[in-house]
Amino acid sequence: MTPAGEITIELTHRAGQVAAVKIGATRPEAAQVLVGKTPEQVLSMVPLLFSLCGNAQAYAALMACRAALQMTAEPEADAARECLLQLETVREHAWRILLDWPVLLGQPADKLALAALLKLDRQFKSCLFRDGEAFKLDSLLQIDGAFLQTLLDELTSLIDQAIFAGGRNGFLAISDEAHLRDWLDGNTGVAAQLLNAVYQRDWPALGNSPVVGLPELDSAELNRQMQNTDPLDFCRTPQWLGRCFETTPFSRQQASRLLADLHSHYGNGLLLRFVAVLMEMAVIPRGITAMAGMMSAYAADDVGLAQVQAARGLLIHRLELRQGRVYDYRIVAPTEWNFHPDGVLAQGLKSLQADPVDGLRQQAEWLINAVDPCVAYRLILNKR
């Protein structure tokens, strides 16, 4: 097990058909180390606890602390913080695309392009907040507009070349499947290679399931559920209104014309998941607006609850203060929704069918990558 935990995915199969799926996780209760701390201490510790989606975790913690302390809103600073969250989404998606997607295709990972992107990513905070401190109670907005635009231009160019092979603008113009197929015919980038491989394997609908996107959660009702439910139950295996939902780039972008057209043919299968990630990669650097307004905070009796759209889906932080210190802290990550024992991945895996077993393993690995856990996973296949 890694320090961040591990997800175990066990498939039982017979005659090339998945008969049963068992998903379990060994993830540490990181939020427990925050109990007894002051809000200032919480905001210093959270970035050290979470290596992935660190900005989203820090922003959710900040919003929850501010709500519990009944602090006034900071519209301009929060707009800058949302910019950082969206840029972090680009970084997290790029990590998968440049390191994992080539491996799925039997090619070496593109570590040089990823290193260049990470170098750019580290500079964004410094041109938005004084001393690069974006997620403190006393953070000061200090925007260097010229430097920010330079970084965005460099980021856009890097994404265009490394992922879309110069075809980013063409990808942004796609509105239906026929247009997508035309774009794929003339592009040799890693994005086009992966989507072409999905078509060649006849996998566009692979993993299609009836699980739908998580609706907007009423903050007051969410607070009641998190307060009244065993934290190990809701935080590890969350449901809403007694149902499992997914919270992914696909559920976030599903209203787009292209995804609506693809969904009419393939449901929520493999093709749509990869396309949704590419849509966010293409559009975010252009306008930093792909997820704007998808953050909320709620306050009640020394309780602060924040909902933030992280790269992989909805992230929830809830804390309760007593005498100025954290009495209770709970976190629900998007992985807990998507890798729920009865969730979207489990239901998708149950539909897989391939012979020989290596084919089944390959299908499972592609689907797991598309749903995207935030920690390492171990895939086990058992023959019945």
UniProtKB/TrEMBL annotation:
Record InterPro entries = Ni-dep_hyd_lsu (IPR001501), NiFe-Hase_large (IPR029014), NiFe/NiFeSe_hydrgnase_LSU (IPR050867)
Judging by the UniProt lineage, the source's domain of life is Bacteria
The name this protein carries in UniProt is Nickel-dependent hydrogenase large subunit
